[in-house]
Amino acid sequence: MAESKAPRATSNRSTTPVSNTFKEYISSGWAEREEVLPQPREQAAFAAARRAKISALHPGKTLIIPAGAAKVRSNDTDYAYRAHSAFAHLTGWGSDAVTGSVLVLEPTVDGHTATLYFREAAGRNSDEFYANSDVGEFWTGPRPSLAHVAADLGLETRALPAFSEVLERISATTLLVREADRDITDSVDGRRLLAADSAAIDAESVESEGDAALARDLSELRLVKDSYEIEQMRGAVDATAQGFSDVIADLPQIIAHDRGERLVEGTFNRRARAEGNAVGYDTIAASGPHACILHWTRNDGPVVPGDLILMDAGIELDSYYTADITRTLPISGTFTEVQRRVYEAVREAADAALAIVRPGIVFREIHAEAMRVIAEKTAEWGLLPVSAAESLQPEHQYHRRYMVHGTSHHLGLDVHDCAAARRDLYLDGVLEAGMVFTIEPGLYFQPDDLTVPEEYRGIGVRIEDDILVTSDGAENLSIGIPRTADDVEAWLAAR
User: Which domains does the chain have, with CATH numbers?
Assistant: First the structure.
């Protein structure tokens, strides 16, 4: 095997011994490893069913779904690795996925054969296992064998170098997930262009339309969750509930620190690492007027008694399924009269939206119902220049000044799941049992907003729950995390 090179920018400081004597010595004296092949993991059968569905949508075409390479954070250090969601969905491989892997579906007479290509464990007769800090066993731990992964995922496996044979068979109609791995995308694009020239096919249309169609179909495949996915969503919500309780338990230390928001983030992230893979997205710990900044993730402010803190957070399990939950808490333990008024208005909007959820309604109706309540409340408080009914007209929307975001998004492997799905199946789609999405209305009164009385300024409230559509209605998966103003105050008092 060829000698491993020092990775990236470390060759100028590498001190790895290179003598033949050392190579012979470090390659000897190791105990034999007995490999016991696992039974297929629970999600293997579900992943196989998903592959069958995507196969049926693209007969006769080779489909390439990369896991993606590690992403550089700084010089020769990487961000924590996360495989592409489409790859995870079709393989069942989550936090234990090997970087740079590729799933390939090649057409047969009656469908596709699926093969997983990945970098298998290096033998002790190579220098990779000790000299390559990117992938060597001494540096990053052992990788599984081809046989182990084949048994674990119920997939045919081949060593990653064999993927070059797939590239040699690229045709003009081969499709791939473009954004997953830039090097693979460049290689496939070039080979498709050559194949298209010889076949008189428009390669650009395959690239722009064919790949987009694959991305769309992979997104739409996730709109309705199977029973395994629903189980994972429940687990993610349960873990997230523990994270919220941890934060409440740590409130005295959080309040005492100059950057208490950072402590909120750290406390929750600790639970995420203990119970899952990581956080599903950057935690929003927005105290006081920071709660009016919808995606506040700097989290560098104090947590001051008398203010509210808006915490938007979710734990991602090792399967990559994530929760997405928001609670707004009075830091002192009790809401002021105005805070409670705003909070309960938001809760009423959330409850009204949930009440209409059932199979057969259109997804966008959920947002419309929440906005009805938001318009009515802001009109009732004298904040609108027109009536609620007038404000709800498409040409007006005055109430949206105080809630510019949408009410719901699909949830699953990605916090904003199914993002490439067509509008007529997403926003204008009809709800089906098995769909999971958020309901998250809010009210945000900016500190310098002169359209509202001073007592409202700097108050931001959002309540977000994760909702499962059932056969005859809906289930709030996060109902166990206190929601009403009274229950929130009792929750804080019990810490």
Answer: 8-220 (3.40.350.10), 227-493 (3.90.230.10)
